[in-house]
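Co-fold these.
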Amino acid sequence: MRPDGRASDELRSVQIQPDFIIHPEGSVLITVGKTKVICNASIEDRVPPFLRGQKKGWITAEYAMLPRATPDRNIRESSRGKVTGRTMEIQRLIGRALRSVVDLDRLGERTLWIDCDVIQADGGTRTASITGAFVAMALAFKKALERKQIAKLPIKSYLAATSVGVHPVHGPILDLCYKEDSTTDVDMNIVMNGHDEYIEIQGTGEEATFNEKELATLLSLAKKGIHELIEIEKAILGDLVIEQKVGTNK
Amino acid sequence: MRPDGRASDELRSVQIQPDFIIHPEGSVLITVGKTKVICNASIEDRVPPFLRGQKKGWITAEYAMLPRATPDRNIRESSRGKVTGRTMEIQRLIGRALRSVVDLDRLGERTLWIDCDVIQADGGTRTASITGAFVAMALAFKKALERKQIAKLPIKSYLAATSVGVHPVHGPILDLCYKEDSTTDVDMNIVMNGHDEYIEIQGTGEEATFNEKELATLLSLAKKGIHELIEIEKAILGDLVIEQKVGTNK
Amino acid sequence: MRPDGRASDELRSVQIQPDFIIHPEGSVLITVGKTKVICNASIEDRVPPFLRGQKKGWITAEYAMLPRATPDRNIRESSRGKVTGRTMEIQRLIGRALRSVVDLDRLGERTLWIDCDVIQADGGTRTASITGAFVAMALAFKKALERKQIAKLPIKSYLAATSVGVHPVHGPILDLCYKEDSTTDVDMNIVMNGHDEYIEIQGTGEEATFNEKELATLLSLAKKGIHELIEIEKAILGDLVIEQKVGTNK
Amino acid sequence: MRPDGRASDELRSVQIQPDFIIHPEGSVLITVGKTKVICNASIEDRVPPFLRGQKKGWITAEYAMLPRATPDRNIRESSRGKVTGRTMEIQRLIGRALRSVVDLDRLGERTLWIDCDVIQADGGTRTASITGAFVAMALAFKKALERKQIAKLPIKSYLAATSVGVHPVHGPILDLCYKEDSTTDVDMNIVMNGHDEYIEIQGTGEEATFNEKELATLLSLAKKGIHELIEIEKAILGDLVIEQKVGTNK
Amino acid sequence: MRPDGRASDELRSVQIQPDFIIHPEGSVLITVGKTKVICNASIEDRVPPFLRGQKKGWITAEYAMLPRATPDRNIRESSRGKVTGRTMEIQRLIGRALRSVVDLDRLGERTLWIDCDVIQADGGTRTASITGAFVAMALAFKKALERKQIAKLPIKSYLAATSVGVHPVHGPILDLCYKEDSTTDVDMNIVMNGHDEYIEIQGTGEEATFNEKELATLLSLAKKGIHELIEIEKAILGDLVIEQKVGTNK
Amino acid sequence: MRPDGRASDELRSVQIQPDFIIHPEGSVLITVGKTKVICNASIEDRVPPFLRGQKKGWITAEYAMLPRATPDRNIRESSRGKVTGRTMEIQRLIGRALRSVVDLDRLGERTLWIDCDVIQADGGTRTASITGAFVAMALAFKKALERKQIAKLPIKSYLAATSVGVHPVHGPILDLCYKEDSTTDVDMNIVMNGHDEYIEIQGTGEEATFNEKELATLLSLAKKGIHELIEIEKAILGDLVIEQKVGTNK
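Predicted complex below.
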């Protein structure tokens, strides 16, 4: 049995509370088991230098943890004077994932800033951040539509993320809590869209390995979890997002 | 009339929610009007180098704002690579204020870390941080008592903080919200203990000035607000803190 | 008796030597007892980005100590790679204080840079810096008048600063030297203008407290000291500064 | 046809030149098409603080590009004052990959430093770095064996890495050169060991997506390429590495 | 006898391999004994801010060592977060030396970037860098001529550099290898042009001293070595560089 | 005629004021024409890590300019967050020069810190710093003798420095002021000891060149200037320094 009594293909309890902070254009608190992340989306009317004059938008993400989001206190990255490699990886992942379901041309010369701040951590903070950030982004675009800044919602598909892993005792499992994550040899984060297409697969043996059969089981568990997460998103966003064929942004 | 209809000597609505985050030894969410700050207290079993071997403890505070705690998005200090002067001033203020009511000898060779993270800002974030941090600290010490790490609560008095200012129209007012703060010429932060003693007075004309009579009114408004805040603290902490004569830590 | 035999309401010997360094528009060496600070004022024909196009000026201050201004050698902030929190607090204080007596509109789109470099320290370096910086600023504006860069001196009032404190033996005292400062529980810096108005009150118990009666005595001592400092400024500046009603710069 | 006339499942020409630099314990120049990486392995007789006293070793990797390894000159990371997110991701990937095939207990309290310096880039620098680093590491361990620092080679399996992608015209292809990489929607880096087990799968749509069928083809292309790379490694290392069952290092 | 059997006035074996890296406008690998430096020259179509609008060009140099260019591994400057004083000195020296033989007006508003990356070090890396950089620069200008970016080669004279020193046993010697350099009291780097004129003399006792007679011998050894180095440059560059009277760039 | 009417072999007026700052073990203000440098020497009872346990001392120097030491205001290096290449070169030069005349064994496991702070600059700040630092160092050692920290003065010889240059109109000249320095093609800093031995020769064409004859004249001018500077040092230090044969510290 898993520490919290879940079946191996069972997600933790997930809540997404919209309009959590009053100032951002889009804001949610996503809760996945004991993991809690504030996801804020801000729209800025300009793009980074490398995109100027190209009539397309950009999405960039930042991720941080409060020092006591974890059992032991972490040094604040602002005190450290630099962002760790782990944080950079996560920020790049969130940004790439969101850009894959957005029509950047339709966004116009605007930057969408996503801030994911983990206030309580119990495993899966990067995948919870992606799922929460997707909803915050959709809410921000909804507000931009209402303010007539944009003519049409620039989102092409739903998007969600979860983690899977191979536990030495339980075998392949879905949505690892921290205790599971730290005893699991193989750990994989999967991001998918509403068409069952992969956006990102990041599987690492973390000093162990996995074979082709285990890979197949992990991918199948992830697909089930992502289907359920997208249903939760739909319950909040209603008919805001209309699925379209996802081309490329290049 | 003030923007939110308050009388000039009226605090905003204040809530202090204990045990907000599960991991820290002490944790509260303090809400003052629309200002919300997570205050976490952590106990570490060692002291900074300059205190080693002196058999006394230390208290240090860190303060940060989420980028969208404010109407416009702020650059994250970890991305900026350094902490701003404003943040440093606030951190030093919170630390000094807490140390003034703690018997550091009784704490033993331990460091109490206070993390104040503003998730939503509407003026008065530094004074809300001090008031919230005091409660988080008391809860952390309570846990240390229960775990028998310390023999007696090392707190010598209650502590709270508020802001006062001279508004060009309303004159002297208590507990400024952001809109008031930005139109007020003179701005003062007051920290007091449960014996009506001053811990800190920081009054600045911010390019204006104030005379002796205005100063007297401001100090009187602050005392009233701090009395009310200490009542709210007492409602949470019960008879945990016993007021004692406050000596000096030097 | 105080270590240097002064009465409790007596300033140390103060000299302000104008035109100390040849290059700056305004330059003084201020000596307060054994504390010596070089204050240089530079006028730059542009303003920081946040003020561009507003037809008003700005004043910004930097403060530093030579490594051996103190009995023990301090690490140079340029070697450390960053400015300490203490330095930032002092720089912000000096800038705010000077701006409170200057008509920034009359200055035009110019920045006045103040550099306060402590070459020898014996307590009170931040208040000596403010008093010296005021004179350096006035000399720089005088030169700008002579060069017809500005039409009228943009200074609205005199300005000076001093420290007061509660000594465990001597009680409330004026103008603390280092030895007194380090044995004093309560320490307060006061900045006032030529109309007996407060610009800044920074009183901190530094882990101790002070009551209302002590506060009243401290404020009265500070007023006496500032009157004397302004007389010394007037002896140098003659009839250059004409006192006007001090409005606000906002 | 691909720009250099290769079949879709064909690697570029690969050479690994051992003993390229005289000072390191292990050193190779790996050439993959026009991509050239110097991989140096250094053995240090101590471990990072988090591992002290645990009688096991550690492997850490650093990666850099000469400024003109690429068609346009890049800013040197030492001038920039910090390492980019991309570099950090690659360094962490190389370290994890190597640790997955090494018995860290058998290494003893030693750190193996891997330095991968790209002197000429034409796509696939991170996978070439992993393959080259594996050989440099094996040569360093061989020297440590000869010097009797270690009793037995601590390598449990061969290791190699390659890239695969979905090209809009050619479909799934193996070992992308820069021109292909920049026109390819989907890009995946695969690291495998000598038992056909996955060490790492990093597949990203880079703002596009891929489906289950494409994933299967990509994994199969990668396996073919990695088989060929391991043959090249064996030609250099001879019977130095003996394949063993790969457990976990946790 | 010197460690490698050379006479006291004998250079080590020197090779300069042109077109070493494919991307830069000019690229060489210079080998001096066991010292190997990749020198790349890049032409950028703009100048630093301080030169804009002056219709003249600029030359700037960067220098780095691979961590294992040396017997012990050095910390990478990008990890350290800053460039050491030694590196800065060398970079400034290389830039000054090259600028002394180039007509910056003829270069037009362009920056020539020189990157010297030491892949293997055995003494004399800074002088090898200058000699190699000169050839890389000439090759880059040749390409700019061919592309008709410039009308005439902006080089006014040949340029080469070497080191000399006073060895406690062998006395004055030419072109020190690392072993000699570390046992030599006095160490001097000399840069000269093709007219036997000095560009730079950097002689330091490194905690020892030298007298006038030793200085004369050292200068004479250096001249002999530089003559030989310029012959090697001429063998590569043919009649590309035509010696002219060297004026000043000021 | 030179701008200040000097002959080509004439030093500017030089004063060295001992005991300028009260706290350091040794302190002077050196004035060379309009150049003024505060040189402070501090003795610390420990050595840098690389020297621990070797029973010998170390000398390290730091150099800085006040922002308005120059006609235009320079950015403070502490605000910039790093020390410039120019500053690093000068610091290394001062340290090397002083170490060349000190018996580091006799100093014991102590570090002598030299701080040279230029308060007013008019050319020649690095050579004035060396000359002033020598006297400050001697005074600090004198105090250490008096306190019986050391048994014998560890100085082996006098030391002084000056600059020489080739002016386009006046030809070779001694001790350049700023105006001369900025119009001079060739610029050379010479450090010598009391035995007419060279400690350091730093001659740079700064984009120009100089020939053997010019070099000979420059060296002769420098020797004359250094003789005069050492006379000034002797007038202050009396018979404190006894010239000995200068060996090497290696």
